[in-house]
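Zinc finger protein 706
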Amino acid sequence: MARGQQKVQSQAKAAEKQAKMKKQQGHSANEQKKAAQKALIHVCTVCKAQMPDPKTYKQHFENKHPKNDMPEELKAVS
């Protein structure tokens, strides 16, 4: 009977390991990079750097391109 109990324990352990592996598949480095890339929607007109929001874009533009005219879309951002 001992072997029967070992079999049940082994199957449970294997099922738990499979579930853990399946859960981790969606969180690979490649998937994370793709998700982060989707968040970068604003692109600097001068240097083509990508930013996640207009406030960051405005700060970037003021610091990196002070001599250039600010784009219209950033003038309204506070």
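thats it. The chain has a mean pLDDT of 87. Helices lie at 2-25, 29-39, 54-64, 72-75. bye
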